[in-house]
Amino acid sequence: MAAKYDFTIEQGANHSFQVQYKNADGSVFDFTGYSAKLQARKTVSATDVLIELVSPTDIVFNLPLGKMSISFLPEKTTPLANTKQTLVYDLEVTNGVTNVLRIIEGTITINPEVTR
After folding, report:
1. Alpha helical stretches, state H, the chain
2. How far from 27 is each of 19, 21, 56, 90, CA to CA, in Å?
3. Can you tell me the distance from the alpha carbon of 14 to that of 74, in angstroms, rounded to the nearest whole number?
4. Positive/negative CA dihedral, 70, 73, 79, 83
5. Closest by alpha carbon to 21, among 61, 77, 48?
6. Long-range CB pairs of 55-58, under 8 A, 24+ apart, other chains included
7. Tens of each residue's pLDDT in the chain, 116 residues
């Protein structure tokens, strides 16, 4: 089951965080051979992807620690409507078609920027 994580981003600013994933026995998960993708939309059923982050550019694995560093660069949020909004997102990792894991899910609140 995906962990729930809600957070806020300042539009047009850098934002990053780390996620560590462990096996059921508490050992570090081995992400070797995995890729990751995070998508954010206005609603779960919306077709338009408003933010997309992918490995290895926006999501970087730290294999020995079972961690991922997720980075939102300014160009990911600057194009969004300049209003306070809340998006839904999830982060999935996959090693092909056979093994897809949803790691985290939740909401992203975007605080609009004044300086452009």
Report:
1. 74-77
2. 15, 9, 23, 23
3. 6
4. positive
5. 61
6. none
7. 899 999 999 999 999 999 999 999 999 999 999 999 999 999 999 999 999 999 999 999 999 999 999 999 999 999 999 999 999 999 999 998 788 999 999 999 999 998 87
Two tokens, residue 39: 């998508």
Q: Residue 4: what residue type?
A: K
In 23-99, DSSP assigns E strands to 35-41, 51-54, 59-62, 67-72, 85-94
What does the block give as tokens for 24?
Answer: 């059921």
Query: Cα separation of 8 and 96, whole Å?
Result: 31
Q: Look up tokens 């004044």; give the residue.
A: 114
Query: pTM for the complete prediction?
Result: 0.92
